[in-house]
Amino acid sequence: MTNTLKDKVTELFSHHKIGTLATIRDNKPYSRFMMFNHDDLTLYTATNEHAHKAEDIAQNPNVHILLGYDRDSNHEHYVEIEAEASVEESAELKKKFWSEELKHWIASPEDPEYLLLKLNPVTILYYAKPGKEPQELTL
């Protein structure tokens, strides 16, 4: 069975939950580690409404994400994603993507300070291994 590029990317999303999210602040890139969930090729990540990234995205919704690569588990594949970020208002999705791991920042799915960021990919570069040329998935 041949996996399509989309299949490879969604499989990677399912196995790699922690990556970096870069925003632009004062015309400079700023990145931080985030926990990611996905629905097909759309990524979601939780934040507090008072976090700098929320301010950054309000000013400029263009973000960059790195996800994947785990040398210790032989998962050397990774993706670089250019995406457009927005705030997801759906209470159902906020509940679906909230987890106990978020309690340090967000008390519950009903926390009024909980923002769920929806990251709509524009371009995904899939690297099967470091040093290899990427395959591009344009959406």
From TrEMBL:
It comes from [Bacillus] enclensis. This is General stress protein 26. Residues 5-126 form the Pyridoxamine 5'-phosphate oxidase N-terminal domain. InterPro entries: Pyridox_Oxase_N, Split_barrel_FMN-bd, Stress-Dev_Protein. It comes from the Bacteria. SUPFAM superfamilies: FMN-binding split barrel. Pfam families: PNPOx_N.
